[in-house]
Amino acid sequence: MYPQASDEALYGIGCILANPKNPEKNYQKSLDALGQLVSEHPQSKYRASAETLIALITEVMNRDKVEPTFKRQVDSYEKQVESLQKQVESLQKQIEQMKEIDRSLEEKRRAMPPRK
Structural domain boundaries of the chain? Predict the structure, then answer.
């Protein structure tokens, strides 16, 4: 009905589909709408904004792919740190036990009569 407004409609669709508050957001459909705007309406006043949004949405999509991997790495490192902390605690207990044994042996040595 309003072909002169199709670029504005595509821009609006792209923005709505990319809005983080939209429970039905769909980055790929947003990119499709914005890409259609850029290709079909090269002189549109929305073109520059659409190209910027395309770049931002692409960046968000790439980040979303990387973050789960990064989170798994962080989780793995946290588990390693926890394991190493337990090992340190265990070794500290062993050191204390050895010190106690050493003190006990020293007391026994002092209590023994001197050799002739």
Answer: 3-111
Long-range contacts of 52-60 (CB under 8 A, 24+ apart): 53/14, 53/15, 53/18, 57/18, 57/27, 57/30, 57/31, 58/31, 60/27
DSSP string computed for 27-92: HHHHHHHHHHHHHH-TT-TTHHHHHHHHHHHHHHHHHHHHHHHHHHHHHHHHHHHHHHHHHHHHHH
Reply yes or no on whether the pLDDT at 3 is more than 90.
no
What is the C-alpha radius of gyration for the chain, rounded to an integer number of angstroms? Answer: 34
Residue 110 burial (10 A CB sphere; 0-12, 13-18, 19+): exposed
pTM over 0.85: no
Across the range 63-87, mean pLDDT stands at 83
Q: Which two tokens stand for residue 75?
A: 């989780």
pLDDT per residue over 39-59, tens digit each?
999 999 999 999 999 999 999
